[in-house]
Amino acid sequence: MTAVLILPGLFGSDEAHWQQFWLRDQPDSICVVQNDFDNPRLSDWMPRLEETLDAVGEAYIVAHSLGCLLAANLAGTAAARQVKAALLVAPCDLQPTHTLHPGKVVFGDMPMGQLPFPAKVVGSLSDRYMSLDCLTLVARCWGAEIKNIGNAGHINTASGFGRWSGGYQLLEGMKSRTRRRRSVAELPMCPVR
Question: How many other CB atoms are found less than 10 A from the CB of residue 72?
Fold first, then answer.
């Protein structure tokens, strides 16, 4: 069974957060636990993600907020080859994040390069961490599908997202497409005449 790596964002995910339910409900899920969720540094978080990917082999990623930027920063690394697909929920724009939490986040520039793995970005019309226009631009730059789920805030506990069956369905759809893509790639080549 391929692991599902859960990547929380700033301050981690509280017990009522949909990521915590995911960890309890989905036996193949593993949380990538960072040493300091309250003062995230890309230089600290990335090695932990790469170590976890090395330990589990291939994995799906389910990220929230700053965890989405961590996943996007995998682009250009050897570890990115181990990611089968990523579900990136409510990514944060670093500018409003720095305004809302001054001095907390050291993550460099907003990653805007194409992701080397299939990805779906899930966003909201009412997320104070990323406008819909920015979400659309980021998804386009990442080469990701986009799913707007309406007025859902930051898609976290504060906006009413505890157990989130819609999230499970989104990842299952991505897994199904990944399996179909692999089975087509494994078909024998037609002989050349």
Answer: 25
Query: What one-letter code names the amino acid at 55?
Result: A
Answer whether residue 190 is part of any domain.
no
Question: For residue 180, how far is the Cα from the chain centroid?
Answer: 21
Tallying the residues shown for the chain, one arrives at 193
Is the pLDDT at 101 greater than 90? The verdict is yes
Tokens at 14, concatenated: 């509280």
Residue 46 lies in a domain: yes
Q: Please state, for a pLDDT cut of 70, what percent of the chain lies above it.
A: 92
- Mean of pLDDT values over 17-26: 95
- Rounded CA-CA distance 171/130 in Å is 22
User: What is the spatial distance between Cα 177 and Cα 183, in angstroms, rounded to a whole number?
Assistant: 10
Domain hosting residue 20, numbered range: 3-185
pTM for the model stands at 0.91
The H or E element that residue 98 is part of is helix 94-100
Q: What is the pLDDT of residues 49-70, one digit of tens each?
A: 999 999 999 999 999 999 999 9
User: What is the DSSP code string of 133-193?
Assistant: HHHHHHHHHHT-EEEE-SS-TTSSGGGT-SS-HHHHHHHHHHHHHHHHHHHHHTSPPPPP-
pLDDT at 190 over 60: no
Quote the CA–CA distance of 72 and 125 in Å, as a whole number: 22
The answer to whether residue 191 sits within a structural domain is no
